[in-house]
Design the sequence.
């Protein structure tokens, strides 16, 4: 009768040892996985606290709306009449790059503004709408570029 009890005790010890080894390897695997994702352990480094009123270093005080070589540095917009109306109304909701990558006629910009008002909750621009549309149609109008020029001086050969 002592043999079955001895067997049960041995089985219990083996199960306990297996559980401990499994937990150990699970912890080691977790640590290795964490180090693969974040090898610098930046999670444990203190983050600098910024005050709400602080301006990023790239825009020293007074230079927030600086214009250099005809370009508004913060947004990339071209300097011109209506620039600040565009900055104040357009960059509240989306990046300035969304504007500068597009080229439209006056009618196209008006249609885009109307679409944003109908579907994207853009507020009524009032008298600023004409200023904004004039600015955009002046500086972000379609470019008169067509297809690239034909290739010249190329020795063509037939594919077989």
Sequence:
């Amino acid at each position: 009768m002592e043999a079955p009890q001895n067997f049960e005790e041995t089985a219990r010890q083996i199960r306990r040892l297996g559980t401990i080894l499994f937990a150990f390897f699970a912890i080691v695997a977790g640590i290795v996985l964490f180090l693969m994702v974040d090898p610098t352990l930046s999670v444990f480094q203190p983050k600098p606290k910024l005050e709400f009123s602080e301006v990023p270093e790239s825009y020293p005080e007074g230079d927030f709306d600086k214009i250099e070589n005809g370009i508004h540095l913060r947004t990339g917009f071209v300097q011109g009449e209506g620039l600040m109306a565009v900055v104040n109304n357009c960059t509240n909701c989306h990046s300035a790059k969304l504007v500068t990558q597009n080229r439209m006629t006056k009618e196209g910009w008006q249609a885009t503004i109307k679409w944003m008002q109908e579907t994207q909750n853009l507020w009524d621009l009032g008298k600023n709408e004409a200023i904004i549309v004039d600015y955009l149609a002046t500086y972000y109008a379609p470019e008169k570029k067509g297809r690239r020029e034909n290739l010249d001086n190329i020795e063509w050969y037939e594919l077989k």
Q: What stands out?
A: The chain has two domains: 2-44, 67-139. Residues 2-37 form the longest helix (36 residues). The mean pLDDT is 84. The first strand starts at residue 67 and ends at 68.
